[in-house]
Amino acid sequence: MPRFKTILVTGGAGYIGSHCVVDLLEAGYEVVAIDNFANAVGGDEGSPALQRAEQITGKTITFYRADLLDKPQINDIFDKHQVDCVIHFAALKAVGESMQQPLLYYQNNLLGMLNLLEVMRSHDCYQMVFSSSCTVYGEPENLPITETHPTGKITNVYGRTKYFIEEMLKDLSAAEKKWNIISLRYFNPVGAHPSGLIGEDPTKEFTNLMPFMAQVALGKKPVLTVFGNDYNTPDGTGIRDYIHVMDLAAGHVAALKLLNENHVGLKVYNLGTGRGVSVKQIVDVFERVTNTKIPLKYVSRRLGDITAMWADATLAKEELDWTTKYTLEEMCTDFWRWQTMNPDGYPKKNMKTKVVITNGNS
């Protein structure tokens, strides 16, 4: 049994959060999850994703519907539980929306983190895994990207919130040596749990490639909109490092292990496969493994998008003993299993997950 016993997962009902919760439970941790359902399906009845995570693992999750902007509510949760470490996923995350509503993103992502850190400190909890993003690198100066690549020249507001939080954590860990933080810079998470029970169910307009592509394959949308086919890449479409969400979840468990065993201060790791794949290439693989046809419609580039980006994940391999295991074909197959088993995503009502409401807030 790990020395860390109870892990608080913010944004635990979301796509990455719910998959990580499964891995945490299977690794022997107890999980307290919170979510305000800004990016996840659920409500006062609870979270269908976490209900299914309980089904997959046979273990119980303590869940609170809570908002990091409500500091007394978060304080109350910490009063109730001896939290050993926090995995912080909760954030608004749509690049396009962030460009249209910058104040919303700064308020939610930055103030939410400030409140969380202050409540953690007041409860003597100094261990954190932070969900960061490869967007902090901006347009790459060289590829593949290592953790020493310059950060800060960022092309969108969402990425700037992640960058500002990383700078905040840098200052905090320098000023107060008790803090023990790992910041994980994700590349592009796709796929779903192999059971098909949990997966990505966007609550806003479909902007992520794989859910959009699957909706087209199901006949729910007529065509896949591809933003830009005039990039300086072999086929003109943007190149990204797609990583299976279960590999990403395993990266968090590996980060917890390192925090458990060492005082690192603040460390940063890329989580990616180290391989760049174009939009056109992933569409081709998806069509092949699912035996479907995806009509494409090319439109102009989105504001804030970059040409190509993929990771050098050597440091995570060396220090976290973590590498990706899933292939691009498995990413597509697992997502298609989730989507065909759940063509409309999660059930939107009659959810049975027990919700604890604190301070009268719901």
UniProtKB/TrEMBL annotation:
Residues 8-334 form the NAD(P)-binding domain. GO terms for cellular component: cytosol. Its EC number is 5.1.3.2. GO terms for molecular function: UDP-glucose 4-epimerase activity. Pfam families: GDP_Man_Dehyd. It is an enzyme of class 5 (isomerase). Keywords: Carbohydrate metabolism, Galactose metabolism, Isomerase, NAD. It catalyses: UDP-alpha-D-glucose = UDP-alpha-D-galactose. Its cofactor is NAD(+). GO terms for biological process: galactose catabolic process via UDP-galactose, Leloir pathway. Pathway: Carbohydrate metabolism; galactose metabolism. InterPro entries: NAD(P)-bd_dom (IPR016040), UDP_G4E (IPR005886). Homodimer. Belongs to the NAD(P)-dependent epimerase/dehydratase family. Catalyzes two distinct but analogous reactions: the reversible epimerization of UDP-glucose to UDP-galactose and the reversible epimerization of UDP-N-acetylglucosamine to UDP-N-acetylgalactosamine. The reaction with UDP-Gal plays a critical role in the Leloir pathway of galactose catabolism in which galactose is converted to the glycolytic intermediate glucose 6-phosphate. It contributes to the catabolism of dietary galactose and enables the endogenous biosynthesis of both UDP-Gal and UDP-GalNAc when exogenous sources are limited. This is UDP-glucose 4-epimerase. It comes from Parnassius apollo (Apollo butterfly). The lineage of its organism: Eukaryota, Metazoa, Ecdysozoa, Arthropoda, Hexapoda.
